[in-house]
Amino acid sequence: MRTHDLPRIYDYLEYRAWLRDAWEHLRAQSRSYSYRWFSRKAGFGSPSYLKHVIDGDRNLSDDTASRCAKAFELGPQEAKYFRALVRMNQAASTEERSQWYDVLSALPPYRETQKLQRSQYDYYARWYCIPIRELVARSDFREDPQWIAHQMRPHIKPSEASEALALLQDLGMLGRDADGRLQQETPLLTTGPELRLLSLRRFHQQMLRRAEEAMDQVPLPEREVGGVTLRLTESQVRHLKQRLFELRQEVLQLDGAAHGDQAVHHFAFQLFPVTSYPSAPTGDSDE
Questions:
Q1: Structure confidence by residue, pLDDT tens digits, 228-276
Q2: Which residue of 33, 154, 168, 287 is surrounded by the most CB atoms within 10 Å?
Q3: pTM of this prediction exceeds 0.85
Q4: Is residue 258 part of a domain?
Q5: For position 49, which CATH number holds?
């Protein structure tokens, strides 16, 4: 039985943020709670171990994460969520982060209260959801999972097409017109920045794999792949990123703007360094 109140851990996707809020919550209840007290309770050698973790100066291992969970008197499900959250936040790759998000989002308390958040993640993380939403706007669209599955390149399973249609409708990305026909809608997605970044990274990774497959599977007249390798200053990189953003907005204006047969396309461009700068580059990174 827990002897104190804590912020609900299932509302967090950053374990350090939860540790900070949980600790401040404890401290507000009684000044008898100190870093030294916590270290003794968790079995840490350093009295300031928790502070270093909260500040980002130290990471948690599986063992120290379990000790923290025990010291905060988390229940079994809460402790499992906390450990998965630690692993997700400290993962070295998007693939690993996604795997740990799958673990924590499968826990009943999260699944029951954060269903919308998980659905919004799936919208980006399943590469075919966005193409299917575009396909709905085509004049020959058929609300038939078998037909949709075979329209995708590469093909997907009819069950995946069916699940995607249900997901898109749950999110309000698709609705029905007066005749009952599916049509595109434009709701506001409210996924938090941590989850949105993770799902977007996963989406881009999947589309890069589709691009690699297209080199072998799509005839040359139907695709265009090219690139240049050149030396750029940090200022030139920022300028080029802005130009790419403007081009992306221009390309979006082409969507459905012409008559004739249409196929859903994914238009992508990448800019990334293949060497290091003499000194560490500045500026932010975004998806």
A1: 999 999 999 999 999 999 998 999 899 888 888 899 999 888 888 988 8
A2: 168
A3: no
A4: no
A5: 1.10.260
